[in-house]
Design goal:
198 residues; alpha+beta; nine-stranded antiparallel β-sheet; two-stranded antiparallel ribbon; 5 helices; 13 strands; 27% helix
Length: 198
């Protein structure tokens, strides 16, 4: 599963979104809808940035397989008037794009891209039959488009921490907040037990 974990903050995320649309390879969906709302497909980076669900995206590589499936998830009715459903975007060959971003001023979480491999999808096909036959997907197209997105993110970087590209605003955030300890899913101002500074 070719993934990329990278650091992005503030205006880095709109720049990544611009790149997604400029590549012209993807249809862009929320991974999960807001509660009691339909799943949204976005047509511009500005729409994504303004949407409450615009931090977790499912990218469909155009022409790579059947259109993404939208699955309704019914929510337990715990309180009268509480939300009753939401929708999830699903498909074997979807590329996931998540924005981690700052958590206060003590942590910057990785942003992330990833997708299934053909081998992994085939291994899980009998466990998740609703997603259909993984062989129906054009895995070469999925891998190519995902790789192009990862290369764009790497080119945007101004430095690296370990294997993780650091985009410009993330670099400034890290410097300003004095983040020095990388563990878990990001970089922190304080160490985890036994950790040393980078």
């Amino acid at each position: 599963m070719p993934n990329l974990d990278f650091y992005a903050a503030d205006d880095d995320w709109p720049a990544v979104l611009d790149a997604v649309f400029e590549l012209g390879l993807f249809r862009v969906f929320e991974s999960d809808s807001q509660r009691d709302c339909e799943l949204r497909e976005f047509s511009t980076a500005a729409e994504v940035a303004a949407a409450p669900g615009g931090r977790h995206l499912a990218l469909y590589v155009v022409g790579s397989g059947a259109a993404p499936m939208v699955r309704r998830l019914d929510l337990p009715a715990s309180v009268p008037g509480s939300p009753t459903f939401r929708y999830r975007c699903e498909g074997w060959g979807l590329v996931q794009l998540y924005y981690g971003g700052p958590v206060g001023v003590q942590e910057l979480r990785w942003s992330h891209t990833n997708h299934n491999s053909e081998k992994r999808a085939a291994a899980w096909a009998t466990a998740v039959p609703r997603l259909g036959d993984p062989a129906a997907w054009n895995w070469a197209a999925v891998t190519s488009a995902s790789g192009k997105l990862n290369r764009v993110a790497r080119r945007m970087a101004v430095s690296k921490i370990g294997s993780h590209p650091v985009l410009p605003h993330a670099a400034q955030f890290i410097a300003d907040a004095g983040l020095r300890y990388e563990y878990g899913t990001g970089i922190h101002a304080t160490p985890s037990y036994g950790m040393s500074a980078r």
